Amino acid sequence: MAYTNDDEALQQWPVECRDVALQYLKTSHEMVRKLLEALLGNLGAELDDSKIDAFIGKKMVNMNFYLTCPNPELTIGVRRHSDMDTLTILLQDGIGGLYIKIPQDVNMEQKGEWVEIPPISGALAINIGDMLQIWSNGRYKSAEHIVRTTSTKSRVSIPIFTRTQPTQKIVPLPQVVEKDGAAHCKEFLFSDYMNNFFGNAHHSKKSIEFAKTNSA
Questions:
Q1: Three-state DSSP class for 191?
Q2: What is the end-to-end Cα distance of the chain in Å, rounded?
Q3: CATH number of this structure's domain 61-208, picked from the four choices 3.40.50.880, 1.10.260.40, 3.40.50.1470, 2.60.120.330
Q4: Which residue range or ranges hold the Fe2OG dioxygenase domain (predicted)?
Q5: What is the pTM of this model?
Q6: How far apart are CA 117 and CA 193, in angstroms?
Q7: CA torsion angle for 184, 190, 195, 198 (degrees, to 10)?
Q8: Are 151 and 131 in contact (CB under 8 A)?
Q9: Long-range contact list for 48-57, CB < 8 A, 24+ apart?
């Protein structure tokens, strides 16, 4: 359910969930803003409100339902990928099934392995998306993740995707590039990234190769 304005949401979103979904989206907005300000401020990038709003961009609420599977080892709810957005805010039920891959360059014992993100009552899971990885010049890594089904209970998750506008130019922040000495991603329009993401079969984090410079 893509959000443009309240009137459109009330007219077009399913009546069974529109009010609570709209409340969920609105109450998360300030949290997303504060998270972005903290993450970007940590990189030395102090951005004004208009720039933060551009990073948040368009918001979308999804509702995912994963049926019980008698042989969960033979299927995957969602195959491995990273989100192409800025941040993903995930509300999940108590069933579990979300796994992230620990990158090889992270100093952890489980590096390169899949680790389950256990649901915590009253808590949200936050995924960094491809755009934030690019804006940070690779300082932050988008989360490669999968969803696995279970043989005992069905699973429900409700993510909010914050997606910049298609006409937005994407390029690493100059403050970060100055510190790093070089940009690791080229400049492009987000619409071109979306076309590449949806137009080609993508596996793991292969889609982000579209943004890399020849020297990255």
A1: helix
A2: 36
A3: 2.60.120.330
A4: 51-166
A5: 0.89
A6: 28
A7: 80
A8: no
A9: 54/164, 54/165, 54/168, 55/86, 55/131, 55/132, 55/135, 55/162, 55/164, 56/29, 56/32, 56/86, 56/162, 56/164, 57/86, 57/162, 57/163, 57/164, 57/165, 57/168
Q: CA-CA distance, 36 to 32, in Å (whole number)?
A: 6
Q: How far is CA 131 from CA 54, 55, 56, 155, 164, in A?
A: 12, 9, 10, 28, 9
Domain ranges for the chain, please list them: 61-208
Residues 91-142 pLDDT 10s: 989 898 899 998 776 665 656 788 999 889 889 999 999 999 999 999 999 9
Which are the contacts of 24, defined by CB distance < 8 A and separation ≥ 6?
61, 91, 158, 160
Please report which residue ranges of the chain form alpha helices under DSSP H.
6-12, 18-41, 49-56, 130-135, 174-180, 190-199
Question: Phi first, then psi: what are they for 137, rounded to 5°?
Answer: 60, 30
* CB neighbourhood size of 214 (10 A): 5
Q: What is the pLDDT of residues 138-185, one digit of tens each?
A: 999 999 999 888 888 899 999 999 999 999 999 999 999 999 999 999
Strand, coil or helix: 151: coil
CA angle 93, 164, 18 (to 5 degrees): 45
